């Protein structure tokens, strides 16, 4: 029985691996009236009896021309051979319109395989020729919106249009985008064909960014600059055919830039709710605990989940009034953000809580407000209240000490604490204190302190000065901020590394100077650094490092390895310098 099942399994896999498909492709779409294009039908096997489709009014210039190719590979002790058969047609379109090529069929491995229909769009061409560089090579900038609110997100797309043969393109200058929080999106740099006003172009998206304005007014989206290497055909020399073959073209470099555009940003309506922290979009919020009953000194997980669209990436951890008996750790933040928050995204804040004493407690509800762009008003959402029953600690000694600790904790913020109404007096025999013992107890601590000081001086371990203590604390702050960036560097995730350094610097500035996320701009950095009397050199280094991280994400990969270590050291140093200079 087992052998029979094994045979069936083997035959099933053979059938799956031997399945063939007939794929139809074209080298141009849309097509200009009268322009020649190629339609290919490709099957991954030996094929015969090809039946042509109905081309519905398209003109056949040649075909079908059949060709086949084969390849052989030997990997990990297994040999594999592949055969591909191609049927090609040379076509043109006599008039404008949309033409659908019906499915073709072919026989392969004793089976008839059909292709899918293919639609060809034909447009009218522009006969006027313009050889100027501006008409044949340029960058177009488009925004999803031009009138928005503070905190509302827009997508900015930089697209390259060319009619020239390019050998290489390189980003030379990135936009500053002052007044915006930005998030770069992944985009395909593959060229596609587009026909603009009857003129065919090869187009590619060179940069796609989500921008979140941090202030109101008319904000400028700066130009982007790109250096293009253009192939220029050489003039042919009839007397030297070898020179024509080996030196058919030269490469010329041209720098092009996009045009600046402006976005009108409106202030959010007043008055703002007390619990509004800058969230703009459409969100749902929920909370949960992993258990409602546990022993004292055991761990409890409490998480808040945000789901929706908007500036979810900029939302910081919430201030929650946990019970005073709970030891609370910094939340672990996990997020799945799609298109910078323009598509449904998820962000979770998970708090580790440790109740230290027996009792019944409540984790209060969270009041969360956001500004809804569509409704143009503030929406409030609330989470659930969670009742937590904390039992006596399993360790009896901890349980006994917890009652004392509980009394200390519960007396916080009370004017009068535990007035005892009864007094218990015990009779003690009065005895004279030995004066030698009294002097010994009085001078012994002083003597021990002197010995300790003397030991420190002899060993060279002097106590830290106030400035040294501040420097030590600053190093702890920098290490905590840059911990995740170090993990990215160790995993060789350079784009994640540069993004995390940039987020760490912005997050450090926001927390240190109590700046809302919707007001984070480089101008704010200058303003608050000047107020704190931080010198210009440190201020320029802080802003310059943010700019460096922005540009480094688009630099060639060969340079990123060297940049990571230097940037990490600079980030740590600049945070330490700011911490040390703050009074």
Describe the structure.
With 583 residues, this protein is α+β, with helices and mostly antiparallel strands. The chain folds into 4 domains: 2-123, Immunoglobulin-like; 133-266, Sandwich (Immunoglobulin-like); 276-391, Immunoglobulin-like, CATH 2.60.40; 466-581. 28% of the residues lie in helices and 38% in strands. The chain has 11 helices and 31 strands.
Strand content: 35-45%
The major sheet is characterized as: 7 strands, mixed
CATH fold field value of the largest domain? Immunoglobulin-like
Helix content: 25-40%
Find the structural class using helix and strand composition: alpha+beta
Q: How many strand elements?
A: 31
Mean pLDDT across every amino acid position: 77
Poorly predicted regions are 6-18, 396-415
State the name of the first-level CATH class of the largest domain.
Mainly Beta
Form type: elongated
Tell me the count of domains: 4
**Span from first to last CA?**
82 Å
The name of the CATH architecture of the largest domain is: Sandwich
- Report the radius of gyration as a whole number of Å: 36 Å
Distinct helical segment count: 11
């Amino acid at each position: 029985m087992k052998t029979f099942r094994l045979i069936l399994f083997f035959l099933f896999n053979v059938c799956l691996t031997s399945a063939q498909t007939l794929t139809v492709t074209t080298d141009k779409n849309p097509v200009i009236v009268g322009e020649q294009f190629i339609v290919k039908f490709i099957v991954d096997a030996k094929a015969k009896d090809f039946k042509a489709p109905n081309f519905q009014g398209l003109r056949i210039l040649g075909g079908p021309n059949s060709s086949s190719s084969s390849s052989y590979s030997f990997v990990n002790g297994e040999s594999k051979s592949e055969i591909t058969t191609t049927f090609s047609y040379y076509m043109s379109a006599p008039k404008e319109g949309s033409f659908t090529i019906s499915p073709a069929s072919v026989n392969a491995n004793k089976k008839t395989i059909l292709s899918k229909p293919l639609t060809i769009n034909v447009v009218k061409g522009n006969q006027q020729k313009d050889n100027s560089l501006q008409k044949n090579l340029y960058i177009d900038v488009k925004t999803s919106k031009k009138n928005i609110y503070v905190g509302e997100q827009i997508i900015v797309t930089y697209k390259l249009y060319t009619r020239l043969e390019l050998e290489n393109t390189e980003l030379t200058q990135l936009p500053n985008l002052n007044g915006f929080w930005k998030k770069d999106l992944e985009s395909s740099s593959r060229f596609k064909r587009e026909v603009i006003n009857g003129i065919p172009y090869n187009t590619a998206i060179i940069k796609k960014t989500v921008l979140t304005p941090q202030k109101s007014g008319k904000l400028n989206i700066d130009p982007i600059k790109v250096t293009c290497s253009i192939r220029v055909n050489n003039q042919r020399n009839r007397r030297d055919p070898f020179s024509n073959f080996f030196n058919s073209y030269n490469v010329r470099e041209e720098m092009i830039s996009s045009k600046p555009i402006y976005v009108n940003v409106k202030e959010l309506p007043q008055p703002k709710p007390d619990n509004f922290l800058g969230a703009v979009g459409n969100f749902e919020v929920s909370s949960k605990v992993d258990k409602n009953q546990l022993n004292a000194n055991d761990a409890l997980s409490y998480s808040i989940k945000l789901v929706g669209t908007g500036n979810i990436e900029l939302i910081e951890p919430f201030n929650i009034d946990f019970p005073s008996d709970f030891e609370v750790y910094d939340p672990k933040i996990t997020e799945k953000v799609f298109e910078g928050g323009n598509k449904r995204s998820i962000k979770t804040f998970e708090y580790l809580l440790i109740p230290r004493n027996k009792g019944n407690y409540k984790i209060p509800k969270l009041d969360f407000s956001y500004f809804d762009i569509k409704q143009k008003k503030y929406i409030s959402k609330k989470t659930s209240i969670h009742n937590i029953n904390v039992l006596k600690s399993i360790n009896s000694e901890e349980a006994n000490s917890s009652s004392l600790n509980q009394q200390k904790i519960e007396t916080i913020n009370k004017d009068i604490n535990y007035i005892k109404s009864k007094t218990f007096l015990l009779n003690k025999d009065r005895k004279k204190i030995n004066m030698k013992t009294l002097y010994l107890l009085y001078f012994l601590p002083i003597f021990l302190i002197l010995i300790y000081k003397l030991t420190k001086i002899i060993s060279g371990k002097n106590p830290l000065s106030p400035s040294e203590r501040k420097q030590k604390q600053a190093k702890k702050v920098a290490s905590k901020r840059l911990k995740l960036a170090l993990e990215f560097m160790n995993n060789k995730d350079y784009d994640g590394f540069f993004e995390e350094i940039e987020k760490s610097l912005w997050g450090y500035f926001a927390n240190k100077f109590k700046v809302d996320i919707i007001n984070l701009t480089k101008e704010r950095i200058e303003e608050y650094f000047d107020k704190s009397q931080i010198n210009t050199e440190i201020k320029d280094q802080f802003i310059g490092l943010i700019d460096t991280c922005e540009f480094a994400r688009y630099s060639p990969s060969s340079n990123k390895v060297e940049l990571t270590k230097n940037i990490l050291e600079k980030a740590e140093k600049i945070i330490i310098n700011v911490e040390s200079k703050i009074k």
